[in-house]
Design a protein that fits this description.
386 residues; alpha/beta; de novo design (two linked rop proteins); 5-stranded mixed beta sheet; 4-stranded parallel beta sheet; globular
Length: 386
């Protein structure tokens, strides 16, 4: 396997002539555009990691009188703030990536679903969108973008709940199949992509798939924008090559006393110091939507776990019983063990519950609530029972 060391990259925030790149792409066929994205190995940067080119291909192959492109800017994962920075620094690249997707799949309308807490960006973004739509009309390319604001629900980061919200309904996940690429927004084929993913598609269109494949590993092509926070002297936004070890990451960004790193936000995994060396940041190891939270020895892992569980209990949409009741019971159970009201062995019962939630919950919220629970219980059990 390719040995990746810490390497800072500048693709996302690099200033480019986005209209010139789009001009070049509009002269190509949708098949050529999609083949380049497939060849690059780009996978979704929102966390799930589905191959972007295949998503575009599935949507393009659908026969429909209307198709849609949606930019998922509902960045609600605790510890993640990289999409906000992308929208602030290079919004035109996001818009151009949406137009590129529109050309590839045959869509004429695009929507940015913006997190409600990011409404302070609306004046600037609305102006950029208006200018961009006007520029597209001058190119005789039928595609326009509209911004819609969310309602502050974490679950709307899930693509089908997002579409429900976009249609004016309560944000609740839909059953799958059908998938959005065949029956998405308003029942039409829809490609939903993360903010960062869309910028990478534009850079691949500009520099070619070979450039992108030279970064990262076979399973984790390219670079990734990380939101780094917690006990670190270097908090902030960094674009790094994928495939690095967590040990190298901690050596670069830790404070010399890092005992754990929460990878992927509240729904991700907590990795203990003993596993830093053997943990790869990428799809062959532990993938992340961007959040990297570092904790040193002063932090109580019980308090961190309780905070995560309180978050999941609050944000569960309540639609399915495994998540609605399961999140409550995980929180009550770990509190009971800490207070001595339940024996330490009860943690194993709670871990079995988390496995049931992973299997039976309808969407990623309930399915992933057990990730921090199990990883913290397994690695820091002594901080829970004493």
């Amino acid at each position: 396997m390719k040995n990746i060391k810490i390497r800072k990259v500048d693709l996302i925030f690099e200033k480019v002539d986005y209209l010139a790149i789009l001009d070049k792409s509009l002269n190509r066929t949708s098949e050529e555009i999609i083949l380049d994205i497939i060849d690059s190995g780009l996978r979704g940067r929102g966390g799930a990691g589905f191959p972007t080119g295949l998503k575009w291909k599935f949507a393009r192959n659908e026969d429909a009188d209307q198709k849609y492109v949606i930019c998922n800017a509902d960045e609600g994962e605790p510890g993640t703030f990289k999409d906000r920075e992308i929208l602030t620094q290079v919004p035109e690249k996001v818009l151009a990536g949406m137009a590129l997707c529109g050309k590839a799949i045959g869509a004429t309308e695009g929507y940015i679903y913006l997190r409600a807490e990011y409404n302070f960006l609306l004046p600037m973004l609305n102006q950029k969108v208006e200018e961009f739509n006007r520029a597209l009309k001058g190119k005789n390319f039928e595609f326009s973008i509209t911004i819609r604001s969310g309602s502050g629900a974490y679950v709307c980061g899930e693509e089908t709940a997002l579409m429900e919200s976009l249609e004016g309904f309560r944000g609740e996940p839909r059953n799958k199949p059908p998938f959005p690429t065949s029956k998405g927004y308003l029942g039409k084929p829809t490609s939903i992509n993360n903010v960062e993913t869309l910028v990478f598609t534009l850079m691949i269109a500009n520099l070619g798939p070979k450039m992108f494949k030279e970064l990262g590993t076979f399973d984790s092509r390219g670079s990734k924008v990380f939101s780094i926070s917690g006990d670190t002297p270097n908090a902030g936004i960094y674009e790094l090559e994928l495939g690095m070890s967590l040990e190298d990451f901690v050596n670069e960004f830790g404070d010399g006393d890092t005992k754990a790193v929460q990878i992927g936000g509240a729904s991700g995994y907590c990795v203990a110091r003993k596993n830093f060396k053997n943990t790869v940041i990428g799809f062959e190891g532990i993938p992340t939507g961007g959040s990297m939270m570092l904790f040193n020895s002063t932090r109580s892992m019980y308090n961190i776990l309780r905070d995560y569980l309180e978050f999941f209990e609050e944000e569960s949409c309540g639609q399915c019983t495994p998540c609605r009741v399961g999140c409550q019971q995980l929180l009550k159970g770990v509190e009971a063990v800490k207070k001595g009201l339940r024996p330490p062995a009860y943690l194993e019962t709670l871990q079995k519950l988390s496995e049931t939630m992973k299997t039976a919950s309808k969407c990623g919220l309930g399915q992933s609530a057990g990730n921090p629970f199990n990883s913290i219980i397994n690695n820091f059990r002594e901080e829970i029972i004493y």
